[in-house]
Amino acid sequence: MTRPLLEVENLRKLFPVRGGMLRTSLQHVHAVDGVSFHIRKGEVLGLVGESGCGKSTLGRVLLQLLPATAGKVIFQDEDITRISKSDLRKLRKEMQMVFQDPYSSLNPRLTVGSALREVLMVHNIVPRAQLAERISSLLRMVGLNDFHARRYPHEFSSGQRQRIGIARALAVEPQFLVCDEPVSALDVSIQAQILNLLADLREALDLTYLFISHDLTVVRHISDRIAVMYLGRLVELGSVEEVIRAPRHPYTRALLESAPVADPDRVRNRPPLFSDVPSPVNIPKGCAFHTRCSEVFADCRHVVPKMGADSRGSLVSCLKYPESWPAAPPEKLKEASTDEYSNG
Asked: Which of 60, 170, 293, 301 is the most exposed place for a label (fewest CB within 10 A)?
């Protein structure tokens, strides 16, 4: 087993909600609430969940575009939440981001060539005499032509602009990319092209991805493992095979059941999610998912499950499974039989 390229330990990100005459902090939005996982070099970890669950915030904290409130982000054996700004700037070459909206992430006043040239010069990637050659190489790498360097972002389609965003991220020759819903704003046919491009680049350049999406059907085609996030916390993490074919957490199963499928005869096996997502300011006590869960029982309302590993190494945070019971579980959980709380 290779050592992880990226390790996240109990990561938290809170945003203050201010009010009153003195604009004091009255409450906090729990955007990322005690998240831990790792990504090995060359791996693709898919991160899925509903809008507002904290996926994009997590991606930005990993790259230190947002400072962490607590916890560690260890990249190449160094906790980057505690390094200086100068050291962090040097590290920018190793970690980059592909944003969701390719148009708003590009400067409309710069041609594509100028935008790429700026990145190459700031980080001193190649000598000035080789800039034009490097820009052409980057454009061809993502399926564009040399003459596209003279055009402005508004002259491209959404799919082409996303290719430009990928080229800009690759310009500094990074090891790790956070792809923040890179295909959600694209047509289905274009989505497939971008996913294939990312897969090819991964193989050619030995890249490592955190691929963020709200669509499990998209994530399954590019990921090695899938992490499911709900209200700032991970509730399940395992291989694509385990999470897609045999999901354990009720939220994961609900996401799979809610995904559209081109089959008019399909019969849903489980009821849809109940109610709306609770406010991240006032997260429910106990299991945060219990207000929407079709399999809830009494202990879910006051016991917080831990992220526990099963015999396969998959992680789940649900009181139906003994590995998720707290260190000192309530008497009801102690006395319950394994069959009562098993996946049924």
From this structure: 301
